[in-house]
Amino acid sequence: MKRHSTNPWVVLVLICFAQFMVVLDATVVNVALPSIQTDLGVSEANLQWVVNAYTLVFGGFLLLGGRAGDLLGRKRLFLGGVIVFTAASLLDGLSTSTGMLIGARALQGLGAAFISPAALAIISTTFKEGADRAKALGVWAAIAIGGSAVGLVLGGALTQAFSWPWIFYINVPVGIATFLFSMRLVPESRDETAHRSFDIPGAVTVTGGLMTLVYAIVQTETKGWTSTQTLVTFLIAVALLVAFVVIELRAKAPLVRLSIFRVRSLSAANVVMFLVGSGLFAMFFFNSLYIQRVLGYGPLKAGLAFLPFTAGIMVSATLASQFGPKVGIRITTAIGMVVATAGLLLLTRMPVNGSYLTSVLPSLLLVALGMGAVFVTLTLVATTGLEDDDQGLASGLFNTSQQVGGALGLAILSTIAASHTKGNSPAQLVRGFHWAFAGSAVFVLAGLVALVTMLRQRDVARIEAQAEEGQAVTLAA
After folding, report:
1. Are the CB atoms for 352 and 427 separated by under 8 Å?
2. Among 47, 180, 239, 261, which one has the highest count of C-beta atoms within 10 angstroms of its own C-beta?
3. In the CATH scheme, what architecture does the domain 1-195 have?
């Protein structure tokens, strides 16, 4: 590929602006949920769709987005994703009904699924291997962590100072500027050797199957688990997911090469991350509601209340990356999950008349310290010991497991919480929250069981050997 004459660091800035929007919008709605619910009259059961519509489509089309960039051109797909994401953000802000907002959020997730893998590939093709690429990927990782924190604070500030639509409107000028500058400055690249076909049926069936499954879970609150409508919806979801597996087995260029799951470490890491994500997404969701609807915090103050969580994640992740391989990958991951579970169980004791300092902050710190270690070690397990050609697929699968697990976990726990909430009084809300946090702890404990039963010492021996030899252990992008 002919390298572009533009300063690569300018390219990095533009790419990171787009990725910042993607990461920010995964969390920005959390502190705005009570305001959205009040203005649009969203039911308790449907509120989680404001989060899940984005998450499911993002996760479901993430792998297709990566492949499309390889074939059509990373810059072309990146620009297309920015257009879709920006237009969807405008529609989000203009939404006047629950259905319109959920539909726009799904479209926004599609744009994100095109932006994220294309952006990462542009970084890899713009920077040569070595120190410069390592620095660029370090900036990329910082955006991923910082974007989540800024999303919570910015979402709170915009909601409180203006109104909730502004958490989406803010993307419009940023998206337009990113598009215009990227057209001129970002280099184009594509994989000329890749099989020139798209597994669109695979992407559609897996995303459709997952969304149908979430819908089936949500409607059990009103229809019951044994109603004809619920059973038919579950059957449709299963049929779509089975169709996805059949398509992947027969496709010339499958979205997911199923044989990769024969790598035991990768399979274990994805199963564990799926379960951990199921518990973690719900923790954010219900904590945001508790802080605002029970403690009475405004949106800005609620966003600031989550900053210690981000700080805890960063501290824990740093320590785990330095000492985890030396102490032992499995031991470090297990300790992190136990600590996070303790924090989630502590949340089941939060009172109606509690306070942030005594009822929320200790739990947030415990969960953050545990999850930082888990994220780092599982990423190492998921991406170590694979051929270079499989690194992109492995990273995409790992991110997809986190997104899809979070969406399904939130659907299940929202339904459980709603079924134990008989009114809108603080006492009734807290009762439902207790059940949701208990369910989150169960998911993380299930992840711990999966870790112990699926991951063997020989599966992590390579990572630990690198640490003993003094080699730098780095995370795959």
Report:
1. yes
2. 47
3. Up-down Bundle (1.20)
Specify whether the CB–CB gap between 385 and 263 falls below 8 A. Answer: yes
Condensed to tens digits (0 to 9), the pLDDT of residues 349-366 reads 999 988 999 999 999 999
Question: Same fold for the domain at 1-195 and the one at 260-477?
Answer: yes
Alpha helices in 73-165 (DSSP H): 74-94, 98-126, 131-161
pLDDT of residue 473: 46
CB 40 within 8 A of CB 163: no
> What angle is formed at CA 476 by the lines to CA 475 and CA 477, rounded to 5 degrees?
110
Note the pLDDT of residue 475: 44
Residue (of 383, 376, 367) closest to 332 by Cα position: 376
304-321 in b/e form (b: 16+ CB < 10 A) is: bbbeebbebbbebbebbb
Decide if pLDDT at 149 tops 70.
Answer: no
Full-model pTM? 0.80
Longest alpha-carbon distance in the chain: 63
Please give the DSSP secondary-structure letter assigned to residue 294. Answer: I
Are 237 and 212 spatial neighbours (Cβ–Cβ below 8 Å)? yes
Amino acid at 351: P
Helix/strand/coil for 348 = coil
Q: Where are the domains of the chain?
A: 1-195, 200-250, 260-477
CATH topology of domain 260-477: Growth Hormone; Chain: A; (1.20.1250)
The pLDDT tens digits of the residues spanning 239-281 come to 999 999 999 888 887 877 888 788 888 889 899 999 998 988 8
